[in-house]
Each structure stands twice: as structure tokens, then as C-alpha cells.
Amino acid sequence: MPTFLEFEKPIAELESKIEELRHLSDAGDINIAEEVGRLQAKADRLLRQTYGRLTPWQKTLVARHPERPHFSDYVQALMEDFTPLAGDRAFADDHAIVGGLGRFRDHSIVLIGHEKGQDTASRVAHNFGMARPEGYRKAQRLMELADRFRLPVITLVDTPGAYPGVDAEARGQAQAIARCIETCLRIRVPLVSAIIGEGGSGGAIALAAGNRVLMLEHAVYSVISPEGCASILWRSADQAKEAAEALKLTADDLLRLGVIDDVVPEPLGGAHRARAQTINALGDALEAALRELKEGDPATLRSRRREKFLEMGEGRLS
Amino acid sequence: MSWLNNFVRPKLQALVRKTEVPDNLWEKCPSCGQMIFHRELEANLRVCPHCGHHMRIGVLRRMEMLFDDGRYQRLELPRTDPDPLKFRDQKRYSDRLREAQGRTNEQDALIVAHGTMGGAQTVVAAFNFAFMAGSMGSAVGGGLIAAARLAVAQQAPLIVIPASGGARMQEGILSLMQMPRSIIAIDEVKEAGLPYIVVLTDPTTGGVSASFAMLGDIALAEPGAVIGFAGARVIEGTVREKLPEGFQRAEYLRDHGMVDIVVSRPELRQTLIRIIRLLHNPQPPAVVEPPATTAAEAFNGRSRPSNGSE
Hints:
The complex is a heterodimer.
Chain A: H1 9-24, H2 30-52, H3 56-63, H4 71-78, E1 79-84, E2 97-104, E3 107-114, H5 120-125, H6 133-148, E4 153-159, H7 166-170, H8 173-186, E5 191-200, H9 201-205, E6 212-216, E7 220-222, H10 226-233, H11 240-247, H12 251-256, E8 262-264, H13 275-294, H14 298-310
Parallel strand pairs in A: 3-4, 4-5, 5-6, 5-7, 6-8
Antiparallel strand pairs in A: 1-2, 2-3
Helix pairs in contact in A: 1-2, 3-11, 4-13, 6-8, 10-11
Chain B: H1 3-20, E1 26-28, E2 35-37, H2 38-43, H3 59-66, E3 73-74, H4 93-104, E4 110-117, E5 120-127, H5 138-153, E6 158-161, H6 172-176, H7 178-191, E7 196-200, H8 206-209, E8 218-221, H9 232-239, H10 250-255, E9 261-262, H11 265-279, H12 292-300
Helix pairs in contact in B: 5-7
């Protein structure tokens, strides 16, 4: 059973009606086929209308949709010989961040990303994509490995945020994130990041200080979750909708603010309706970004990336 | 005992206290509850003389206590677009900003100063917690870049003293982007071979702790300061259990390997001077000429008795 979001209910109702009629029309009744066609057109129109003007809060819900393609789906569809590498060589292997070597469209690369999991058991195993310090330290290690062997790095960002737990704090969550950002900014190989779902705060930027930052059309990327922001500034998480508006967390907003470099369109109805198509579209965009960066020499790749982030928030008054 | 003790005496005392001792002359220590006379508290750098609790100290007082003879020059910081998102919650961000500016008489939450410490040219960037909880937006990020570049130009060490709740969410994603931005800034100091020292003060959390604040060559912390990534209430809500004793305090971070030394405020200046001397034999600075005695003293690496300002 597919999951429908609250605002998708009218579409869901139409689609289940169509499904019922299709079942009946197995006998080949012309009238029913016509009715199905009419309803299908209506459903498509409704889908187009709904997804053509998603509010920032609706996008937040789409970005968190449980059937949205996750890290492992991209690995399966886009990577050959993917070889996951485990551990931070200090404490543990964190399953909220997965990474390894593999071949992406004939390039040998290092791929790192957050994994949220796709059912209850795997969600718990991956801690819902909320990494602990050892996850960020594994990411640092893999980026340094890529740097040493001159392999481009792709990161896929999809996290509600870094894990807020006693153990994570005890092992230096803040320091691990800081060092991870520093590593992103220091390596001398191409770094392309894509926000594929939720870009949640420090846990997201830890992997996203790239030469190119791409974002799927309905992904969100923010300094704080709309609920968190609302509970602080409105003193109630109920104002999450307003907070989502105010935070400017959609791909279009972020492109306008110069924080991301490109928006990758999603198929009609969002990534969860056409997973393979979404994954391929992102694959093409990642390949194009890597091709642009291939020519850059190591020092330039690093300095361009740093110049880009140095300018963020510089404003127009200076 | 009687109405005289329970009713008349407190009333009389209240009357007397109001006229003779205005509230602001005495401050109650939030830790031990003792009343401290304001002059004594200030002379003790806002450290409780009874229990050693470190209260927050004003950013200008902080600068004064660090530099030789309390003398320093301030660096004018670049102006940025004050409200890039046109952010509005129950209040406009631009109004909040103006209020904070009016109340503190400062443009934003970071102050950058330079002068000598133990005779050595030093740049200090300190957060003003009174300005929107010391939160980091584009102006603070820009200020850290300016501080780092001044340190490189003067071939001086950079000391950063955060006192901040984290990123300024009213600047949305641009406040998050100050994390990489500030890290690049302090990296310029490191690449120039100059010491980058952080003094973690209460509080250092969120996006500030998860960026430049945790990347010091040396990390000092003030006793009892709250330092961490996630807020205690958020963690409590996640793990649904009581947090351990002293959790996210300076001493806890030291015991968990995240901080080099917990230094009490009265000893901070001398500790910084000692570390800078040991790390860094200053070459003649590019911009400011130090007194000749200072260079010789630094070269010999000898410490001298503290001067009158401490």
C-alpha cells in the first residue's frame, strides 16, 4: 500500500476509483474504459496542480516521504562494484552514514551519504539517518582516502539532523561535525553534493560543503526544522507551516540565495511516484557536475570551493 | 514566634533595604545564593568569591581583562545585508535586530579587537551574548573573516571567545553557511602558521560549537560553561532519561577529551600569554611595532611577573 500525504488525499481517492474501474473493465467494457480515461485525466490534472504549487511545509512532508528513494536505492541503480567501507578507526561503525568505493558511470568514486532506511527494522538500524560522531569521522576518513587516490567524491544528503543523544555528545558530536566540514573544504578532488530529501542543519552541511551542491526539486535544506523553529520563535510546534515559509528552505529559494548551484526536477507527483526516473535524473546531473570539475587541477578545485563558501552571506552592502 | 517577628520586622527590613541598598548594588550568585557586593564581583571578574561560580561577563570587560593594561583597538567590521530573508515570526527580524542594536549599542554579536598580550600582538574576537544570544549570522561570519585576516596581516595569534546559542535562525540557510565560512576563516590563520586558540565560555552550542569553536589548536574553557551540540532539553526529549551529572559542562568536555584546559577567569590572561609564548615566537609584526623589550622577552621565552592590571 503506497503512503499518501494528507494533501494528496483527493488524488488518492481518484486513483483508487480508477483502480476499481480497471478491475471491472477487464471484461472490455467500452464505457468503463472511457470513464477510466476521464478520471485519469482528472487525476493527472489534480496532481499537476497540487505539485505545481506545493507550499514549503508540503515540500517538507514530500522530502520526508517514506517511499522517497534513499541512499541505498541510488547505490543500487547508479553504482557498479559498490564496496561499502566501515568504521571511523576509533570507536565504531555508524550506520546512519554509509560510504564506500564504487564505479559511477565509468568513474571510480567515493560515495558517502545518509541512509534513513525503508522499513521499521532498517530505520532503527540506520537510526533514521541521524548520525553520531563516528559517522562524521567515517566520512572524514573516506574523503581523505579519496583525496589520496585522486577520486572524486559524491555525497548524498538526507538527514533530519545529527543525533541528539548523550553518547553522541560524550564523544564530541560538535567536534566531529566541525572536522567533517573542514575536511570537505580541504580535499583537492571534486566534491559534488546532492540534497536528496531532508537537509537537516549541521548534520547536513557536514557532508555538503561541495564544489557543486545540487538539490532535488522537492527536497528541503534548512538551519533548523520547521517544528524546531516554530517551537522556539512561536513557542509552539503547531506553527511549523509558518516557520517553513519564513525559513526559505525550498530548492528554488536556496538557488535564489546562491546557496545551491542547481535544482534537479522531480517527475510529476514527486520522487516517490517515479523512483527510477528520479534516480536517473539525479545521476545525469551528478555526472554533468563531475564532468565540469574533471578538468580542474587539485589546488584550483580546493580554492574555488573555499571562495564560494567564503562569499555566502556577504550581502550587497559591503 | 510572633507577629512582630514575622510581619513587622520583614516589612521594616524591606523598607530600609529599599532606601539604603538599591537592588543593583548587590547581586545574588545563582549557584550558591550568596549576595555579593557589585564592586567585589566586578573586581573578581564576575566570579563568585564564595563558590567560584563564573557569571557571564560583558564583552568589553572581557577585552579589557585580556589585553595589556586593558588597552586595545577595535576593528570596524564589514556591514552586510541585515535581513536577507525578510524573516518574520511573531516579530520582524529587522525589528529584533534594531532592538538589540539599541540595547547593546553594537552592530552585531561579534567584537574584534587587537592589542598586546604580554607584549605580543594578538587579535581577539569575542561574542557578545547580550546581542541575540550571541547567535551567528552573516555579520558574525564576516567578522570572523575580518579577524582572521587581521591576525594574518599582523602575523599575530587569533583568540576566539564564543558565547553563543548557535546559528541565527532568522537568517535561515545563510546562518548555516556561516559554519563552513567561519571554518575557512580560521583555516587561513592556521595555514599562515599562526596559533588559533579558542576560549569556550558559557554557552557554546549548536552551529557555533560545530564549526570554528571546536577547531582550536588549543581549546580552553571557563569552569562550568555549557558546551555541546544539541540542547539539553532536546536530548532529554530524545533519550527520555535524566542527563548525567555535569553533562555538557566544561569539565565534562575536558574529561571526555574535547578541551585542553579548564581555566578560571582570573587565570585566563596569564594562561593565554604563556601558551602564546610557548607556541609562537613572534617575528617583528608586519603592521604594529612592538616595544623592543617585548621581542627580547619573547625570544628568551621567560615569563615575567604579572603587571598591575591583573
